[in-house]
Amino acid sequence: MQYSSGVIEALVKELSRLPGIGRKSAQRLAFHLMRVPAAEALLLSDAIRAARQNLGSCRVCGNLTEEDLCAICSDSRRDVRTICVVEEPMDMVAIERTGTFRGVYHVLRGVLSPLDGMGPEDLSTDPLLGRVRDSAGEVEVIIATNPTAQGEATAHYLAGLLRPLGARVTRIARGIPVGSDIELSDQVTVAKALEGRKEL
Amino acid sequence: MQYSSGVIEALVKELSRLPGIGRKSAQRLAFHLMRVPAAEALLLSDAIRAARQNLGSCRVCGNLTEEDLCAICSDSRRDVRTICVVEEPMDMVAIERTGTFRGVYHVLRGVLSPLDGMGPEDLSTDPLLGRVRDSAGEVEVIIATNPTAQGEATAHYLAGLLRPLGARVTRIARGIPVGSDIELSDQVTVAKALEGRKEL
């Protein structure tokens, strides 16, 4: 018996399933949750339950929402002729945080990744094609999958499906992160930064 | 509005209260919990609730337990004449893991820390003195508070209370961690390692 209580053991086990949380961190979190006022620990328990019980997918874009349509799709000020395709809802948060994008989104819920058993049928591709068809081609699709091998493969796969529908298909820029060093960047990133150069 | 949903916002907020979890990690954990099967997320929610609702303090030592007495205090094979004093239940786990300690514990639930408003009255001191008195002095108390300023102060404070009761009071050794380098150790640790030297 590692812990004096099976209840603690169960809590450590569930916490250690979280990404980036090893057994030791899980133990630290578990004992922290036992030390804080019970109300604080129960707020976390309830927040997890509420999130899973009340959130579903937006009927249009696949974003997480408590309603039928997400806050972005139901905002009439957003430009529906610019669709930004992302892997996960979290990527939308990063893009929204810039405050510069006024279009709408489409959440793929993954990327092509044969090794993980993720094929085209596992992505939310058909709804995206439907949205582009409905716009009669008057649309720009910005593919904002991550600049990984899987993200690139997915971008090319989608571009091949979207171009025949008359959509303008673009890809987010890859280059040196702002505030970073060229010296510290990997060679593929430096090559992409050179390739994507612009007139000053 | 940072997230498209207040439910997500609430979940990120509660996760970011956890020690060592910043806002970005909390966000990553929140979206992870939305991506896994609902049953997995609800297991975590339930484990937190169960831990807070079913665990209390052992009547004798203060360890976390679902019963009146913890698993260690109710184990008749443990030597009640050796009491190891620790700050928190998590420290017991670390000591139990060694498999070498056959005595019992006493959980202080903190250390003396005037800056954090922790005084002698906030520690579980009286029950410890009671246990020592009940043993008529036939007891060794190993003080295993952390080797920090507060842990040392607490150790000396407890020793001053315990010695008049006839208890043998010992302190865990401070020295170079096994597998570590003398070169990399701070000077106080090296000094303590020299001071605590033993005949070969």
Molecular structure report:
The structure is a homodimer of 200-residue chains. With 200 residues, chain A is an alpha/beta fold. Chain A has two domains: 6-54, Helicase, Ruva Protein, domain 3 (Orthogonal Bundle); 76-199, 3-Layer(aba) Sandwich (Dna Topoisomerase Vi A Subunit, Chain: A, domain 2). In chain A, 41% of the residues lie in helices and 12% in strands. Chain A is built from seven helices and six strands; from the N terminus they run αααβββαβαβαβα. In chain A, the strands form two sheets. A four-stranded parallel β-sheet of chain A has the order 4-3-5-6. In chain A, strands 1-2 form a two-stranded antiparallel sheet. In chain A, α1 (6-15) crosses α2. Chain A is globular, with a radius of gyration of 21 Å. Chain A starts with 5 loop residues before the first helix and ends in a 5-residue tail after the last helix. The mean pLDDT of chain A is 92. The interface between A and B is large, with 57 and 57 residues.
Features:
Helicase, Ruva Protein, domain 3, 200 residues, 12% strand, 2 domains, 4-stranded parallel beta sheet, Dna Topoisomerase Vi A Subunit, Chain: A, domain 2, 7 helices
Q: Give the end-to-end Cα distance of chain A, rounded to a whole number of Å.
A: 66 Å
The overall average pLDDT of chain A, rounded, is: 92
What strand line-up does the widest sheet of chain A have? 4-3-5-6
Helical stretch tally of chain A: 7
Shape of chain A: globular
The multimeric state of the shown protein is: homodimer
Structural class of chain A: alpha/beta
Poorly predicted parts of chain A: none
Q: Residue share in helices of chain A? A: 40-55%
Order of helices and strands of chain A: HHHEEEHEHEHEH
- Pair with the biggest interface: A-B, 57 and 57 residues
CATH architecture of the largest domain in chain A: 3-Layer(aba) Sandwich
Instruction: Please tell me the total number of domains of chain A.
Output: 2
Fraction in beta strands of chain A: 5-15%
Largest sheet of chain A: 4 strands, parallel
User: How many DSSP-defined strands of chain A?
Assistant: 6
Rg of chain A (C-alpha, Å): 21 Å
State the name of the first-level CATH class of the largest domain in chain A: Alpha Beta
CATH fold title of the largest domain in chain A: Dna Topoisomerase Vi A Subunit, Chain: A, domain 2
